[in-house]
TrEMBL record:
Taxonomic source organism: Myxobolus squamalis (Myxosporean)
Gene Ontology terms for molecular function: dynein intermediate chain binding; dynein light intermediate chain binding
Protein name: Cytoplasmic dynein 1 heavy chain 1 (Trinotate prediction)
Matching Pfam families: AAA_9
One GO cellular component, as annotated: dynein complex
Top-level taxon in the UniProt lineage: Eukaryota
Organism ancestry: Eukaryota, Metazoa, Cnidaria, Myxozoa, Myxosporea
Signal peptide (UniProt feature, chain positions): none
Domain Dynein heavy chain ATP-binding dynein motor region: 2-69
Length: 159
């Protein structure tokens, strides 16, 4: 639920989160390839390592690239922390949604007619975002309360 909420409420940050996660994977792959290249160059070395100019220049180049990539990885981690803090704002609503879904699942203990699928719940869940406009700032707890109230109202109407 959390990522569906985030996608509906803050699509800009969701796109940024996906992009940052993708970039981190690409940076880690580039670091891995640099390590493989270093091992390959060291494996092909003949004679003394410090006497081979090709090894020295390759080591310098790999060191510069790894420092640059490590810096980019650190920057993307910092940006991801900011995005995840925005994600944390919606955690209480996501928890409420999960509890409500499992409550729906337990209703069949009262009567066998009460069987609801996850798709049924998500239909109601998605209709909440059609009715309630996205939050303009990230500190509006009134907005979260409104989302919960609308979700509860829609559940009562449909169940």
């Amino acid at each position: 639920c959390l990522y569906k909420i985030f996608r509906n409420e803050r699509p800009d940050l969701e796109e940024k989160r996906i992009e940052l996660t993708k970039m981190q994977g690409e940076y880690n792959l580039r670091l891995y390839n640099l390590q493989k290249k270093l091992l390959s160059v060291l494996n092909e070395a003949q004679g003394g390592l410090l006497d081979d100019e090709r090894i020295i220049s390759t080591l310098k180049q790999l060191n510069e690239q790894s420092i640059e990539i490590s810096s980019k990885v650190e920057d993307s981690k910092n940006h991801l922390v900011v995005v995840n803090s925005s994600l944390d704002f919606y955690q209480p609503f996501a928890t409420t949604c999960s509890l409500l879904y499992f409550l729906l699942q337990d209703l069949h203990a009262l009567n066998n007619l009460y069987h609801y699928s996850l798709n049924f719940f998500f239909d109601i869940f998605n209709s909440v975002f059609v009715e309630v406009a996205p939050c303009s700032n990230n500190d509006d707890t009134i907005h979260l309360d409104t989302l919960v109230i609308v979700l509860l109202r829609k559940l009562v109407e449909r169940v």
